[in-house]
Amino acid sequence: MSKLEIFSNAGCPYAQRTRMVLIEKGVEFSLTEINLNKKPEGWEKISPYGKVPLLRHDGATIYESAIINEYLDETFPDPPLMPADPVGRAQVRIWMDYCTNRYLPAVAQLRANHADPAKLQQSLEELKELFLFMEHEGLRKLSSGPYWMGELPTLVDFQFMAFLVRFPCYEEVLGAEIPAECTRLRAWLTAMHERPSVQATSLDTDDYIAAFRKRLKSA
Ligand SMILES: N[C@@H](CCC(=O)N[C@@H](CS)C(=O)NCC(=O)O)C(=O)O
């Protein structure tokens, strides 16, 4: 098998997405840990955006985590992480887009408003609406679980999970919560936490929380 090389950072959720998919695929790879506070000399020549994750494979350089993950799924089709039917694949992409363009901006708003109680409350309400939408328009309509699209995980599960493993930061520090009526979402989270790929790539929750507090202080 030709060599797969991933440039990563242990604390980066985007890199975690890709490491989870590599583990799910069971492919061999070498990992180079990049210190993002002191990037190695010549890094800009390796990574066009200066970011992790970045994959090198067969002489190609692939970057942007969601694109890397689709590349990995096409290159190593077993086990498949995309549904076989075009509608299913479209649904996966709709919810991956939701993660990037709706969920992530909502948690960014929470962080930005953390010091203003009224604005924080408003951001918490907005996040709650997003979770309810994920529950009712996504999970409940698409499958009976345990994963987003049914009995087997697909790319959308890893897309979200890299961020949901960090959700305890928002619960503990900012008082966010996944509404009790989001039973499918909660069961999804439990199922995802049990996957070896998630366990192998996640840090300790206390470490996430400590890093989060530091990040808010320096914001
Ligand atoms: N959209 C990118 C985001 C990647 C990203 O923001 N990576 C961060 C670490 S979590 C990074 O490398 N930051 C370094 C920098 O921007 O200089 C992806 O999905 O891969």
Give the SSE map.
Elements: E1 4-8, H1 13-25, E2 30-33, H2 43-46, E3 54-57, E4 60-63, H3 65-75, H4 86-112, H5 117-142, H6 155-164, H7 167-174, H8 183-193, H9 196-201, H10 205-217
Parallel strand pairs: 1-2
Antiparallel strand pairs: 1-3, 3-4
Bound molecules: glutathione.
Residues 9, 12, 14, 36, 50-53, 64-66 line the site of glutathione (GSH).
Tell me what you see in this structure:
By secondary structure, the protein is an alpha+beta fold. It is built from ten helices and four strands, in the order βαβαββαααααααα. The chain folds into two domains: 4-75, Glutaredoxin (3-Layer(aba) Sandwich), CATH 3.40.30.10; 86-217, Up-down Bundle (Glutathione S-transferase Yfyf (Class Pi), Chain A, domain 2), CATH 1.20.1050.10. Helices cover 59% and strands 8% of the residues. Strands 2-1-3-4 form a four-stranded mixed sheet, covered by helices on one side. A hairpin with a 2-residue loop joins β3 and β4. The longest helix has 27 residues, at 86-112. The protein starts with a strand and ends with a helix. The mean pLDDT is 97. Glutathione binds next to α3.
Residue stretches low in confidence (pLDDT < 50, at least 5 long) are none
Tally the helices: what do you get? Answer: 10
Question: What is the CATH topology classification name of the largest domain?
Answer: Glutathione S-transferase Yfyf (Class Pi), Chain A, domain 2
SSE order: EHEHEEHHHHHHHH
Helical content stands at 55-70%
Number of structural units classed as domains = 2
- First-residue to last-residue Cα separation: 45 Å
- Report the major sheet: 4 strands, mixed
CATH class of the largest domain: Mainly Alpha
Q: Determine Rg (CA atoms, Å).
A: 18 Å
Helices and strands: which structural class? alpha+beta
Which outline best applies?
Answer: globular
- CATH architectural arrangement of the largest domain: Up-down Bundle
